[in-house]
Amino acid sequence: LQNPNVLNAVAGNYTVTVNVAGCTSTATTTVVLNALPAAFTPTTPVTYCIGGTLSLTGNPSSAGTYAWSGPNGF
Q: Are residues 18 and 31 in contact, defined by beta-carbon separation less than 8 angstroms?
């Protein structure tokens, strides 16, 4: 099996054993799953006029990154 992928992996220790011509090699790694960060969710509907300005603010983690996206290539 060349370049296997594991889908829906869970946290824990994973071991791979390779046997070639009677020679065996084993490697183990630990998989840690981090919780997803909370997404921005407005507490009330957001309404504004076309061409108007909408301001969104937050308190990002210093270790996090963010990206903006929207309709029409925003």
A: no
